[in-house]
Amino acid sequence: MCSDGKFTITGYSHDSGTCHSISKVRLIGGDPVQTAIETRACEGSSVSLSCDSGFIDIIDATYGRKHGPDVCPHSATSDQDCHAASSVGIVSAACSGQSSCEVSATNGVFGDPCGGTYKYLTVNYACLAGEPPAPPPVGAISPADFATTGSCKVDDSDDSILSVTQVANSQQGTCFMPASVTSGDTIAITYDFFTGDGSGADGAACA
Questions:
Q1: How far apart are CA 191 and CA 30, in angstroms?
Q2: What is the CB neighbour count within 10 angstroms for residue 74?
Q3: Which of 40, 18, 23, 2 is CA-nearest to residue 166?
Protein backbone atom coordinates (compact mmCIF):
# COMPACT_ATOMS: atom_id res chain seq x y z
CA MET A 1 0.00 0.00 0.00
CA CYS A 2 1.35 3.43 -0.85
CA SER A 3 2.24 5.42 2.26
CA ASP A 4 1.11 8.73 0.72
CA GLY A 5 -2.28 7.37 -0.32
CA LYS A 6 -1.59 7.51 -4.06
CA PHE A 7 -1.08 4.77 -6.62
CA THR A 8 1.29 6.20 -9.21
CA ILE A 9 2.45 5.04 -12.62
CA THR A 10 5.48 6.74 -14.15
CA GLY A 11 6.94 5.99 -17.56
CA TYR A 12 10.06 7.12 -19.39
CA SER A 13 10.80 6.60 -23.06
CA HIS A 14 14.38 5.98 -24.16
CA ASP A 15 16.24 5.97 -27.44
CA SER A 16 19.39 3.91 -27.83
CA GLY A 17 20.57 3.61 -31.40
CA THR A 18 17.88 1.77 -33.33
CA CYS A 19 15.97 0.72 -30.19
CA HIS A 20 13.54 2.64 -28.05
CA SER A 21 10.83 1.79 -25.57
CA ILE A 22 7.31 3.20 -25.39
CA SER A 23 5.17 2.27 -22.41
CA LYS A 24 1.45 1.72 -22.01
CA VAL A 25 -0.25 0.26 -18.95
CA ARG A 26 -3.64 -1.45 -18.80
CA LEU A 27 -5.18 -2.34 -15.43
CA ILE A 28 -6.30 -5.97 -15.54
CA GLY A 29 -6.96 -8.96 -13.24
CA GLY A 30 -5.41 -12.39 -12.92
CA ASP A 31 -1.86 -13.68 -13.36
CA PRO A 32 -0.28 -14.44 -16.76
CA VAL A 33 -0.10 -18.12 -17.65
CA GLN A 34 1.96 -17.63 -20.80
CA THR A 35 3.32 -14.96 -23.09
CA ALA A 36 1.22 -13.26 -25.73
CA ILE A 37 -0.19 -15.36 -28.57
CA GLU A 38 -0.80 -13.92 -32.03
CA THR A 39 -3.39 -15.34 -34.39
CA ARG A 40 -4.57 -14.09 -37.79
CA ALA A 41 -7.39 -14.80 -40.23
CA CYS A 42 -7.80 -13.50 -43.77
CA GLU A 43 -11.00 -11.69 -44.70
CA GLY A 44 -13.93 -14.07 -44.94
CA SER A 45 -12.56 -16.61 -42.44
CA SER A 46 -12.41 -16.65 -38.63
CA VAL A 47 -9.85 -16.53 -35.82
CA SER A 48 -10.10 -19.07 -33.02
CA LEU A 49 -8.72 -18.19 -29.59
CA SER A 50 -8.34 -20.71 -26.77
CA CYS A 51 -6.68 -21.21 -23.40
CA ASP A 52 -5.92 -24.68 -22.06
CA SER A 53 -6.23 -23.17 -18.59
CA GLY A 54 -7.31 -19.79 -17.31
CA PHE A 55 -9.13 -17.25 -19.45
CA ILE A 56 -8.54 -15.02 -22.47
CA ASP A 57 -7.24 -11.46 -22.07
CA ILE A 58 -7.20 -9.42 -25.29
CA ILE A 59 -4.01 -7.38 -25.65
CA ASP A 60 -4.56 -5.97 -29.14
CA ALA A 61 -6.65 -6.55 -32.25
CA THR A 62 -6.79 -4.97 -35.67
CA TYR A 63 -9.03 -5.59 -38.66
CA GLY A 64 -7.62 -4.02 -41.80
CA ARG A 65 -4.24 -4.25 -43.52
CA LYS A 66 -0.76 -3.26 -42.33
CA HIS A 67 1.30 -5.45 -44.68
CA GLY A 68 1.84 -6.04 -48.36
CA PRO A 69 0.70 -9.08 -50.36
CA ASP A 70 2.99 -11.38 -48.34
CA VAL A 71 0.32 -11.45 -45.60
CA CYS A 72 -3.04 -12.85 -46.74
CA PRO A 73 -2.00 -12.68 -50.41
CA HIS A 74 -4.39 -10.91 -52.78
CA SER A 75 -4.28 -8.56 -55.74
CA ALA A 76 -6.02 -5.77 -53.74
CA THR A 77 -3.41 -4.82 -51.12
CA SER A 78 -2.48 -1.24 -52.09
CA ASP A 79 -3.84 0.32 -48.86
CA GLN A 80 -1.45 -0.81 -46.14
CA ASP A 81 -2.45 1.75 -43.52
CA CYS A 82 -5.93 0.44 -42.79
CA HIS A 83 -7.39 -0.27 -39.34
CA ALA A 84 -10.93 -0.54 -37.96
CA ALA A 85 -10.90 1.56 -34.77
CA SER A 86 -13.49 -0.73 -33.16
CA SER A 87 -11.32 -3.85 -33.50
CA VAL A 88 -10.19 -4.17 -29.87
CA GLY A 89 -13.63 -3.48 -28.46
CA ILE A 90 -15.38 -5.99 -30.71
CA VAL A 91 -12.89 -8.80 -30.08
CA SER A 92 -12.80 -8.07 -26.34
CA ALA A 93 -16.58 -8.19 -26.10
CA ALA A 94 -16.60 -11.58 -27.82
CA CYS A 95 -13.61 -13.18 -26.11
CA SER A 96 -12.40 -11.53 -22.88
CA GLY A 97 -12.93 -13.79 -19.88
CA GLN A 98 -13.73 -16.82 -22.03
CA SER A 99 -11.72 -20.04 -22.31
CA SER A 100 -12.28 -20.10 -26.08
CA CYS A 101 -14.01 -18.02 -28.73
CA GLU A 102 -14.26 -17.43 -32.47
CA VAL A 103 -14.49 -14.11 -34.31
CA SER A 104 -15.24 -13.69 -38.02
CA ALA A 105 -12.93 -11.47 -40.05
CA THR A 106 -15.62 -9.76 -42.09
CA ASN A 107 -16.90 -6.29 -42.89
CA GLY A 108 -20.20 -7.38 -41.38
CA VAL A 109 -18.54 -7.62 -37.96
CA PHE A 110 -16.05 -4.73 -38.09
CA GLY A 111 -17.35 -2.46 -40.84
CA ASP A 112 -15.20 -1.67 -43.88
CA PRO A 113 -12.25 0.55 -42.91
CA CYS A 114 -10.81 0.58 -46.45
CA GLY A 115 -13.11 -0.27 -49.34
CA GLY A 116 -11.54 -2.24 -52.15
CA THR A 117 -8.69 -3.60 -50.00
CA TYR A 118 -8.46 -7.25 -48.99
CA LYS A 119 -8.20 -7.25 -45.21
CA TYR A 120 -7.38 -9.57 -42.32
CA LEU A 121 -7.90 -9.77 -38.57
CA THR A 122 -4.88 -10.01 -36.27
CA VAL A 123 -5.41 -10.67 -32.56
CA ASN A 124 -2.83 -10.71 -29.76
CA TYR A 125 -4.00 -12.26 -26.52
CA ALA A 126 -2.74 -13.91 -23.33
CA CYS A 127 -4.13 -16.60 -21.07
CA LEU A 128 -4.54 -15.47 -17.47
CA ALA A 129 -4.69 -17.85 -14.53
CA GLY A 130 -7.65 -18.21 -12.22
CA GLU A 131 -11.22 -17.07 -12.71
CA PRO A 132 -12.18 -14.12 -14.90
CA PRO A 133 -12.52 -10.90 -12.90
CA ALA A 134 -16.03 -9.88 -11.95
CA PRO A 135 -17.36 -6.65 -13.45
CA PRO A 136 -15.70 -3.77 -11.62
CA PRO A 137 -17.71 -2.45 -8.66
CA VAL A 138 -18.76 1.16 -8.44
CA GLY A 139 -15.69 3.15 -7.48
CA ALA A 140 -13.17 0.71 -9.02
CA ILE A 141 -10.10 2.31 -10.56
CA SER A 142 -10.22 2.94 -14.28
CA PRO A 143 -7.78 4.86 -16.50
CA ALA A 144 -10.18 7.81 -16.70
CA ASP A 145 -9.98 8.20 -12.90
CA PHE A 146 -6.27 9.03 -12.96
CA ALA A 147 -4.94 12.57 -12.85
CA THR A 148 -2.23 12.93 -15.47
CA THR A 149 0.87 15.04 -15.99
CA GLY A 150 3.38 15.26 -18.81
CA SER A 151 2.82 12.73 -21.60
CA CYS A 152 0.49 10.45 -19.61
CA LYS A 153 -3.04 10.20 -21.05
CA VAL A 154 -5.85 7.74 -21.67
CA ASP A 155 -4.93 5.93 -24.88
CA ASP A 156 -6.52 7.34 -28.05
CA SER A 157 -7.49 3.92 -29.43
CA ASP A 158 -8.46 2.04 -26.23
CA ASP A 159 -9.83 3.80 -23.13
CA SER A 160 -8.89 0.82 -20.92
CA ILE A 161 -5.20 1.71 -21.37
CA LEU A 162 -3.10 4.43 -19.79
CA SER A 163 -0.62 5.59 -22.42
CA VAL A 164 2.27 6.83 -20.30
CA THR A 165 4.73 7.60 -23.10
CA GLN A 166 4.06 7.65 -26.82
CA VAL A 167 7.38 8.62 -28.40
CA ALA A 168 11.08 8.01 -27.81
CA ASN A 169 13.75 10.46 -26.62
CA SER A 170 13.11 10.70 -22.87
CA GLN A 171 9.43 11.57 -22.84
CA GLN A 172 8.06 11.40 -19.29
CA GLY A 173 4.56 11.13 -17.92
CA THR A 174 2.97 10.40 -14.54
CA CYS A 175 -0.54 9.16 -13.75
CA PHE A 176 -1.83 9.14 -10.19
CA MET A 177 -5.06 8.66 -8.30
CA PRO A 178 -5.73 9.68 -4.68
CA ALA A 179 -6.78 6.70 -2.55
CA SER A 180 -8.59 6.88 0.77
CA VAL A 181 -7.33 3.88 2.74
CA THR A 182 -6.66 2.71 6.28
CA SER A 183 -3.95 0.43 7.63
CA GLY A 184 -6.31 -2.53 7.41
CA ASP A 185 -7.14 -2.11 3.74
CA THR A 186 -5.63 -4.21 0.97
CA ILE A 187 -5.16 -2.79 -2.51
CA ALA A 188 -4.48 -5.20 -5.39
CA ILE A 189 -3.23 -3.55 -8.57
CA THR A 190 -2.59 -5.72 -11.62
CA TYR A 191 -1.33 -4.38 -14.92
CA ASP A 192 0.18 -5.29 -18.28
CA PHE A 193 3.00 -3.47 -20.04
CA PHE A 194 2.96 -2.90 -23.79
CA THR A 195 6.36 -1.67 -24.98
CA GLY A 196 8.05 -0.91 -28.27
CA ASP A 197 11.47 -2.29 -29.24
CA GLY A 198 14.10 -2.19 -26.52
CA SER A 199 13.55 -1.70 -22.80
CA GLY A 200 13.50 0.95 -20.13
CA ALA A 201 9.87 1.75 -19.34
CA ASP A 202 9.31 2.02 -15.60
CA GLY A 203 6.46 0.25 -13.84
CA ALA A 204 3.72 0.89 -11.35
CA ALA A 205 4.92 2.03 -7.95
CA CYS A 206 4.24 4.11 -4.88
CA ALA A 207 5.42 7.68 -5.39
A1: 9
A2: 14
A3: 23
Residue 61 lies in domain: 31-129
Q: What is the predicted pLDDT for the residue at 36? A: 82
Residue type, 41: A
Domain count for the chain: 2
pTM value is 0.53
Reduced to 3 states, what is the DSSP secondary structure of residue 19?
strand
pLDDT value of position 2:
46
Query: Which residues of the chain carry a pLDDT beneath 70?
Result: 1-34, 133-141, 168-170, 176-207
Among candidate residues 93, 108, 129, the one where a domain is terminated: 129
Q: Over the Cα atoms of the chain, what is R_g?
A: 19
Q: Which helix (DSSP H) or strand (DSSP E) does residue 141 occupy?
A: none
